[in-house]
Automatic annotation (TrEMBL):
InterPro entries: Gfo/Idh/MocA-like_OxRdtase_C (IPR004104), Gfo/Idh/MocA-like_OxRdtase_N (IPR000683), Gfo/Idh/MocA_Oxidoreductases (IPR051450), NAD(P)-bd_dom_sf (IPR036291). One of its GO terms (molecular function) is nucleotide binding. This is Predicted dehydrogenase. It comes from the Bacteria. Residues 139-334 form the Gfo/Idh/MocA-like oxidoreductase C-terminal domain. Belongs to the Gfo/Idh/MocA family. Residues 12-124 form the Gfo/Idh/MocA-like oxidoreductase N-terminal domain.
Amino acid sequence: MSERTSGGRKLRAGLIGLGAMGRNHGRVLSGLDGVELVGIVDPAGDPNGVLRAPVFPALEDLLALGLDYAVVACPTALHEQVGMELARNGVCALIEKPLAQSVEAASRLVEAFETAGLVAGVGHIERYNPALQNLRIRLEAGELGEVFQVVTRRQGPFPHRIADVGVVMDLATHDIDLTAWVTGQDYSSVAARTVSRSGRLHEDMVAVVGQLADGTMVNHLVNWLSPLKERSTVITGDKGCFVADTLTADLTFYANAAIDTEWEALRAFRGVAEGDMVRYAIPKREPLLVEHERFRDAVEGKESDIVTLRQGLRTVQVAAALLESAAGGSTVTVPGRSTTGLEVPA
């Protein structure tokens, strides 16, 4: 435990932004063991008045209280400005996804927090979904054998609160991060098509075909145009396929058949023979609470699994490659990494 929290003192946390996600962060922070939510920044105040912490119009008012860390849940376009100010003041930060709206801005945030020696993470909440955490363990154990393909579908109604980025930098970053994390593989190339049908400046639908470093095929379908809310990840491999529903945190395995189908007509109709289907019973804790617990532990100096800024930068890189591909109608090679871990041009 660090000096700051020795003697049982609670970590002093601040929250920047009281939008839909910010209110959820505030709810969790208000009841998080070992943490005191000491203040909030939002120019619009807290009209609902549900959080028992003072609300300030400007970040300097919050910094004056003395913080151990802050959660950044303001619009993406402000992440760099707010994050840089926190780094300059020696405050650790959990920054909502995406890390920033551009590769350049994300790179500057990585450099600022690393130079200052501060703990910082990105709120890619899907990593803490029970279904995906269980799936990752099973993939690492070789239960699927060789992985052939990762397919994600993420769709639902347009969120009017988001105006500064499109569906690629917002929703699709969930799928980019979870795919790389679950498989343990970087993206090597992507091809994407986008459309805008809601009259907004940014795209609201994207279809992606990609490839990971080990040759695994990737497909993402993401949109803000459907009344159906869907969050599905399907990973197919040589022993069958896993289906994770992150709305319900259910994980199901469909095995390839070990017994041949003797009924010829059925075999012709079904193609690959079906085996057992198993839906796993797994503990289901709230992903946002787990994310906060992990970050709190990291700030206290404990070993903890958080999404680092450098990992968040990598996700922004892939998202930028998707936008480049959609604009140019071509397949784009995703920049690789140098031996020092720094992203380098392809």
